[in-house]
Specification:
The protein is α/β, with parallel strands linked by helices. Helices cover 36% and strands 24% of the residues. It is built from nine helices and nine strands.
Length: 255
């Protein structure tokens, strides 16, 4: 059998801020239904990589996505008018919920917005779809009319996840989604992500400095050091038998 084609493929990705090069020729592949963890210390380029994948940042290199209308195209060369087409297939969950949510709108309205953007004009179907997305994200539906400004940190992240699910993306990009949450809330949120990956088969790229968080969800792990990939492999392989000294330090620090 031929190997499965990647859903998302990046080659030679470079990103500069002025003279400072933050990403230095990053290569990665994400396969359908797979969760890829990206780990590294602060300043390693993890969040920048995710913003480039979401087409929020300009960069150099090759970036392909196996999505209708985009096959074979380099997403980094899309015009500003074409980028929203690609972002339809890529949902983002931010570390800071205020970057991904309308904080003064209800949780229900936040989850419904992607449906409206996609062309849903039937109010009842829009509400039903938003409620289904909130329920899938295990958000307490009795709080559906509350705005994120009145929700806990964990609940805000669940609204972001619901909003991502309502978009029906090919991949969800998660930037440090458990930062600032207590351990119990972290654990239940990671349980939700694992369940969604298993039930829906949606691919994920999960960025975190916490190896425990990544290990709970990721199938494979990519290790970034100062904008370069220094190790990559199956999650258990990388964490149980790290080869690069930097990865060994990360694992030892976790222990």
């Amino acid at each position: 059998m031929a190997p499965e084609a990647p859903l998302l493929e990046v080659e030679g990705l470079r990103k500069r801020y002025g003279k400072r090069e933050v990403l230095k020729g990053v290569n990665l592949r994400l396969y359908p239904g797979e969760a890829l963890g990206v780990v590294g210390a602060s300043g390693s380029g993890k969040s920048t990589l995710l913003r480039v994948l979401h087409l929020e940042e300009e960069a150099e290199g090759l970036y392909r996505l196996a999505a209708p209308g985009l096959e074979g195209r380099n997403l980094l060369e899309l015009s500003p008018y074409e980028r929203p087409l690609a972002r339809r297939f890529l949902a983002m969950v931010y570390q800071e919920a205020a970057l991904g949510l309308r904080m003064g709108f209800s949780a229900l309205a936040n989850a419904a917005e992607p449906l409206l953007v996609a062309g849903e004009r039937n109010f009842a179907r829009g509400v039903e779809g938003a409620l289904m997305a909130l329920e899938a994200a295990e958000f307490p539906l009795e709080r559906a009319q509350d705005p994120p400004s009145r929700l806990s940190g964990g609940q805000r992240q669940r609204v972001q996840i619901a909003r991502a699910l309502a978009q029906r993306p090919l991949a969800i990009l998660l930037d440090e989604p458990t930062t600032g949450l207590d351990l119990l809330v972290q654990a239940t949120l990671l349980d939700t992500l694992r369940r969604l990956k298993g039930e829906l088969g949606v691919a994920m790229v999960l960025v975190s400095h916490d190896l425990g968080v990544v290990r709970a969800v990721a199938d494979r792990i990519l290790v970034l050091l100062e904008g370069e990939v220094v190790e990559e492999g199956l999650a258990d392989q990388v964490l149980e038998d790290p080869q690069h000294p930097y990865t060994q330090d990360l694992v030892q620090a976790r222990l």
